[in-house]
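#onboarding

Welcome to the new folks! Below is a worked example of what a typical request in this channel looks like: someone posts a single protein sequence, and someone else replies with the predicted structure as tokens. Don't worry about understanding the tokens yet, we'll cover that in week two.

Example request:
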Amino acid sequence: MIGYLYLFIAIISEVIATNLLKATDGFSKLVPSVECLVAYVVCFYSLSKAIKYMPLNVAYALWGAVGIILITIFSVVYWKEQINTPTVIGIGFIVIGTVLVNTFGTGH
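Example response:
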């Protein structure tokens, strides 16, 4: 269970870091740049801790899929970016792949 807590922290900090990455304006703004780097350090530290308790393929599939979904939602709501049908379909395939990895993967 502790592995999933670390994974949750990794996902949330990665979503924060990725959104801050946009706010850095190419790392030309100091405060968002430092916050972004700190969030990525937290993210990768937490992910490294998570994979001590769960298989790498499961952790990475969940980290990637949930991160993509949350970042897409945030980019539409906060950054006012457009999303199209192929993007939604692609995210659907990512979700399907993640479910398959978690259901039928040999790590469990």
